[in-house]
Design a protein that fits this description.
Elements lengths: L1 H5 L2 H4 L4 H13 L4 E4 L4 E4 L11 H4 L2 H13 L12 H15 L6 H7 L4 E2 L7 E2 L14 E8 L5 E10 L13 E5 L2 E4 L1 H5 L6 E3 L5 E5 L3 E9 L7 H4 L14 H4 L4 H6 L17 H5 L1 H18 L3
Antiparallel strand pairs: 1-2, 3-4, 5-6, 6-11, 7-8, 9-10, 10-11
Length: 311
């Protein structure tokens, strides 16, 4: 891999950051064990311990990665990490491994499942990942759970979605209305949850700047975010979920354009991507038989989904 990347040096030397990341992203989509790092402008190999909120993962990717990541967040006055701990590498790898599974390749199936498991934050002090999901309102104001999911939209494109759940108190006990304010996304906050839940006109909504929607009931706030398709980490569609200064930036909300809500997209079942007998090579028999057909279909699908990202 290093040799292949060295051959790209001349190509990338005079490219913009966005151009570099697009080249690296295209390269990583063609290689199973890699992801494109925006901080380093390099390709890194995946590590199967790397799931959202896992500790010490920056060190795994090298000293330069730690330095570059720290410099990036020091230079930015607005961009932050997502509360869920999800980085774009998790988005890239989930989408790529799911796509490969649909094409008949079963590489890293256990890791792929781990990337979409429901989890929570243990506490504010450690921000450790926790598997236990509480169904009671949290006194620390943190979400009760995060559930990542890969879904297929009405255009046939795989998208990475995140559901965040806050349990809140019922109308009968205002003291249980915690948290008092919820950050739906970098651009939008909601408060007075009890009043909003009782109002059909105001108990749901979406952000006009990023692909995020929410729904409020007497006991729960449900937030769904669309982190996009298998693309570049420099994509403003992704950065709009991290930085309040990024507002649309030419991104089209495809789910709105197709009259498909994020809730229905998240809840819709998708076909089993692991059907078929798997050979020792990690390729199913059906995948071997249909390899040429799938390759042509993959190219057409990739071009279609990439063109749908912008309008």
């Amino acid at each position: 891999m290093d040799g292949m990347l060295e051959n790209m040096t001349d190509i990338l030397l005079h490219e913009s950051h966005e151009g570099i990341m697009e080249h690296l992203s295209r390269h990583s989509r063609r290689t199973i064990e890699s992801w494109a790092c925006e901080d380093c402008e390099q390709i890194h190999d995946l590590d199967q311990k790397d799931v959202p909120l896992a500790k010490g993962m920056d060190a795994v990717y090298g000293r330069d990665h730690i330095t570059n990541t720290a410099a990036k967040y020091h230079a930015s006055k607005t961009q932050t990490e997502h509360l869920s701990g999800i980085s774009h590498r998790h988005v890239q790898l989930s989408l790529k491994l799911t796509r490969l599974a649909f094409e008949g390749y079963s590489y890293y199936s256990d890791y792929r499942r781990k990337l979409t498991e429901t989890y929570a934050i243990a506490d504010k002090e450690t921000m450790d990942r926790a598997d236990h999901i509480s169904l009671a309102p949290r006194s620390d104001g943190l979400p009760n759970s995060f559930t990542p999911r890969v879904a297929r939209d009405s255009d046939g494109c795989l998208r990475f979605l995140l559901q965040t759940i806050y349990q809140i108190g019922g109308d009968h006990d205002p003291a249980q209305q915690k948290p008092a304010v919820i950050d739906v996304c970098p651009h939008k906050q909601i408060s007075n949850l009890g009043q909003l839940a009782a109002s059909p006109k105001h108990n749901s909504g979406s952000c006009k700047h990023c692909s995020t929607s929410y729904m409020i009931t007497a006991t729960q706030v449900r937030i769904i975010e669309d982190f996009g398709i298998e693309g570049s980490p420099a994509d403003p569609h992704w950065h709009a979920h991290l930085d309040p200064k990024v507002k649309r930036q030419g991104v089209r909300h495809t789910f709105l354009a197709k009259s498909q809500s994020l809730e229905s997209l998240f809840d819709a079942p998708i076909p089993d991507c692991e059907s078929g007998d798997v050979s020792e090579s990690g390729v199913s028999e059906s995948g071997l038989k249909n390899k040429m057909r799938l390759a042509a279909s993959r190219l057409k699908h990739s071009l279609s989904c990439s063109s749908n990202l912008y309008a």
